[in-house]
Amino acid sequence: MIATILMCATLTAVDGDTVRCDGQLMRLLGGGVPFVSGIDTPEIGSHAKCLKERKLALIAKGRLKELLAERGLQVAFSGAFDKTPSHRPLINIYRANGEEIGQKLLWEGFARVWRPKQRNDWCS
């Protein structure tokens, strides 16, 4: 599958693995393959299972926000949508140096590997 490059006038962090491109919610793949692998970050607000997860989510969102402020970002749509009710497009975002932002979050410890039917426990 060939990725489609998207143009975003505005690109903002919603949480650690979700962005808003011109109002459209999109989910970071982190260099993964749709429905096979990706990244996961802690849930924010009332979706968090504990206070620790809520705090980690704010930190991950803050880091993503910093990365999204860089110049020269390239948003690549994988051609797939997630299976949530909002059907978010699954994307990768590349920095000017070619590094994928989701992978950067993973390497820095703000995200964990996601696999189908696997839930990350952010509370223990």
Structure description:
The mean pLDDT is 94. The chain has one domain (4-114): OB fold (Dihydrolipoamide Acetyltransferase, E2P). It is built from two helices and eight strands; from the N terminus they run E-E-E-E-E-H-E-E-H-E. The N and C termini lie far apart (38 Å). The protein has helices at residues 51-68, 101-107; strands at residues 4-6, 11-15, 18-21, 24-28, 38-40, 74-81, 89-94, 112-114. The radius of gyration is 13 Å and the shape is globular. The chain is an alpha+beta fold and 124 residues long.
Short structural summary:
The chain is of the alpha+beta class and 124 residues long. The chain has helices spanning 51-68, 101-107; strands spanning 4-6, 11-15, 18-21, 24-28, 38-40, 74-81, 89-94, 112-114. A 6-stranded mixed beta sheet has the order 1-6-7-4-3-2.
Helix count, per DSSP?
2
Taking the sheet with the most strands, its summary is: 6 strands, mixed
Q: Strand portion, in percent?
A: 25-35%
What's the arrangement of strands in the largest beta sheet? 1-6-7-4-3-2
Average pLDDT, all residues: 94
Total individual domains: 1
Helix content: 10-25%
The Rg value, from CA coordinates, equals 13 Å
Shape: globular
Find the CATH topology: OB fold (Dihydrolipoamide Acetyltransferase, E2P)
Supply the CATH architecture.
Answer: Beta Barrel
Structural class: alpha+beta
Rounded to the nearest angstrom, the distance between the terminal CA atoms is: 38 Å
Secondary-structure element sequence? Answer: EEEEEHEEHE
CATH top-level class: Mainly Beta
Tally of extended strands?
Answer: 8
The stretches of 5 or more residues where confidence is low (pLDDT under 50) are: none
